[in-house]
């Protein structure tokens, strides 16, 4: 990280020159709160952006892609789904941090984040519409990969707006709204895809259009200031650029523990979620048509659990000044939810599992983003100039385990011949994630 910082305030004025023009010089962008109405509009807008992002991901990964894969080769559907998801997510390990770093350095009349949000939305929506035209597992994997590249560029830029625009003491509230957006998006995606899975191109067009409309509305109503006149840090070689993505956990242990906590939670959460459609068919015993319809019902129940926790958790966390107890509590609730289908492998058990998972996940995600913004190395050095890169590196704690969890789950299912082991593994990983939060010192 740099040790020379020159403040640039979010007022549109030309910033003063940096104290040094050497390789270590960076630009500090101090968050500008703005008026309450402006921040409220921005918070709602970010929540809607996450609704669109998660709608594509949940509808595509949870229902549409499993259906496409199953139609091509029913006997190898578990292994083939693992291939599709792993290829896409492993590539995105690089996409999100690179997009975040490049957005930090973007100088345009539209600001640093807007160009990446718009480009990501266009890429994701265009290839989402083309997904049902894929005729093989390889083609599905390639098209879904491009969709995810667009989604990651959009998400990296949108997430960086939190440290860009909000003071630390106000991030719990926006984090809570984003948490709601994430789960509403999960519900929207599963409802749209589940109820329209047999309607040809329609669910793909609706999900792709949702991203375009939401992002267009966001960038118009929440215009970023021009960054054309911002002082640019000295150019560095490709080696130094790549080294910038490494954050030494020995120098920044809180950053490392936050990364580990989310990494473990996501593995536990997504193992069962990735194969939810196949679990309904092969573990619960529903038909293909019934499982699609029931998946939509699961999305609504999951949303109900989230709304009970996410809206209140972020605000309450800000009010009492604590983050870690909420994360631990949320992880325990998710673990309890994952245990329900083991005891009750019925549709009722799945609904109870979904509600508890939503209750825990809503609280977790509404607090976790606020916690992560408070352990960024850039925050520790009083610079927000690399927030996009640093948050995207922490985003790897989501994309990397998403890449690994389908393969882990597929291997466990193949070894044991059934899906109960997926729930057991989920419990273990989620609880380990809760333990990883405890050593963080910078956040209470």
TrEMBL record:
**Listed GO molecular functions?**
transmembrane transporter activity
What are the GO cellular component annotations?
plasma membrane
Q: Where are the transmembrane segments?
A: 47-69, 81-102, 114-134, 140-162, 174-196, 202-221, 255-273, 293-314, 326-344, 350-371, 391-413, 419-440
Which Pfam families does the UniProt entry name for this protein?
A: MFS_1
Q: Which UniProt keywords apply?
A: Membrane, Transmembrane, Transmembrane helix
Q: Is Transmembrane helix set as a keyword in this record?
A: yes
Q: Where is the Major facilitator superfamily (MFS) profile domain?
A: 43-444
Coiled-coil stretches, from where to where?
Answer: none
Principal localization reads membrane
The protein's location, in the record's own words, is:
Cell membrane
The answer, when asked if Membrane is one of the entry's keywords, is yes
InterPro entries for the chain? MFS (IPR011701), MFS_dom (IPR020846), MFS_trans_sf (IPR036259), Sugar_transporter_CS (IPR005829)
Query: Region entry Disordered: which residue ranges?
Result: 1-22
Name the membrane topology term. Multi-pass membrane protein
Descriptive protein name:
MFS family permease
């Amino acid at each position: 990280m740099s040790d020379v910082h020159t403040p640039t305030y979010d007022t549109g004025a030309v910033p003063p020159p940096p104290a040094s023009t050497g390789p270590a010089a960076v630009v500090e962008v101090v968050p500008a709160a703005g008026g309450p109405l402006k921040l409220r509009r921005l918070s709602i807008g970010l929540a809607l952006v996450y609704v669109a992002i998660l709608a594509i991901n949940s509808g595509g990964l949870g229902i549409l892609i499993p259906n496409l894969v199953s139609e091509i080769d029913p006997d190898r559907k578990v292994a083939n789904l693992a291939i599709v998801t792993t290829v896409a997510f492993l590539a995105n390990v690089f996409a999100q941090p690179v997009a975040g770093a490049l957005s930090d350095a973007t100088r345009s009349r539209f600001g640093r984040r807007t160009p990446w949000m718009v480009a990501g939305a266009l890429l994701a929506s265009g290839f989402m519409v083309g997904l049902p035209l894929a005729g093989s597992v390889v083609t599905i994997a390639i098209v879904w990969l491009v969709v995810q590249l667009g989604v990651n560029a959009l998400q990296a830029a949108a997430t960086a707006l939190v440290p860009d625009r909000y003071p630390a003491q106000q991030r719990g509230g926006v984090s809570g709204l984003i948490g709601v957006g994430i789960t509403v998006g999960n519900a929207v995606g599963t409802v749209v895809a589940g109820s329209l899975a047999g309607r040809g191109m329609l669910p793909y067009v609706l999900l792709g259009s949702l991203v375009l409309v939401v992002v267009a509305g966001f960038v118009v109503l929440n215009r970023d200031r021009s960054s054309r006149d911002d002082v640019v840090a000295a150019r560095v070689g490709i080696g130094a650029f790549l080294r910038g993505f490494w954050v030494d956990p020995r120098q920044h242990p809180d950053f490392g523990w936050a990364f580990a906590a989310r990494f473990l939670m996501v593995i536990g959460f997504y193992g069962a979620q990735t194969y939810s459609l196949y679990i309904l068919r092969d573990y619960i015993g529903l038909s293909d048509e019934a499982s699609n319809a029931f998946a939509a019902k699961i999305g609504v129940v999951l949303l109900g659990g989230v709304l009970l926790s996410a809206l209140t958790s972020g605000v309450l966390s800000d009010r009492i000044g604590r983050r870690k107890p909420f994360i631990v509590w949320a992880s325990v609730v998710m673990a309890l939810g994952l245990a329900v289908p083991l005891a009750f492998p019925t549709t009722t058990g799945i609904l109870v599992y979904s509600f508890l998972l939503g209750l825990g996940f809503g609280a977790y995600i509404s607090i976790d983003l606020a916690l992560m913004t408070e352990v960024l190395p850039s925050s520790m050095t009083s610079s927000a100039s690399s927030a996009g890169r640093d948050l995207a590196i922490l985003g790897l704690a989501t994309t990397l385990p998403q890449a690994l969890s389908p393969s882990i789950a597929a291997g466990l299912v193949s070894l044991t011949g059934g899906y109960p082991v997926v729930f057991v593994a989920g419990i273990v990983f989620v609880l380990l994630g809760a333990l990883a939060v405890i050593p963080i010192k910078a956040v209470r």
